[in-house]
């Protein structure tokens, strides 16, 4: 699944904001070229809120196990929750450099983040479902906090 396909799928979610970091995005230069997914019906990156999903296109300091600096590689990360992470990455022993295989995020897996490098036929449908579920969870939390209208 291409990065463009992933971004298009998330953009179709109600209230989704996809930010591809660049010079004018407010994100640090290291993040440029990477994508971050938020629930933001007003079109602005929410303050004090972490994204519920990301597409990372390069290695970061302390996070090189997926070998993302190799050409044509990207990793999709989604805050799927601990239960979903255990379900889709049982035992947490998958190679974080393997493609089209779910594994706990190399740094945030214990916090319920699930990852896949270069999603393909084995992971695409599940990944898109997990991104929808994560988006809906953030949307519902946003609506609860906003209270009755």
Automatic annotation (TrEMBL):
InterPro entries: DUF6194. Residues 1-146 form the DUF6194 domain. Pfam families: DUF6194. It comes from the Bacteria. This is DUF6194 family protein. It comes from Streptomyces evansiae.
């Amino acid at each position: 699944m291409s990065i463009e396909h992933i971004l298009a799928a998330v953009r179709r979610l109600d209230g989704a904001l996809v930010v591809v970091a660049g010079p004018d995005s407010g994100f640090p230069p290291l993040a440029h070229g990477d994508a971050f997914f938020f629930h933001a019906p007003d079109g602005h990156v929410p303050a004090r809120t972490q994204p519920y999903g990301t597409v990372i296109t390069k290695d970061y300091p302390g996070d090189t196990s997926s070998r993302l600096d190799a050409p044509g590689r990207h990793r999709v990360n989604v805050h799927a929750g601990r239960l979903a992470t255990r379900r889709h990455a049982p035992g947490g022993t998958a190679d974080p450099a393997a493609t089209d295989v779910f594994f706990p995020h190399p740094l945030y897996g214990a916090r319920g983040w699930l990852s896949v490098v270069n999603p393909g036929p084995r992971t695409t449908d599940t990944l898109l479902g997990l991104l929808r579920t994560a988006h809906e969870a953030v949307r519902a939390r946003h609506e609860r906090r906003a209270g009755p209208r």
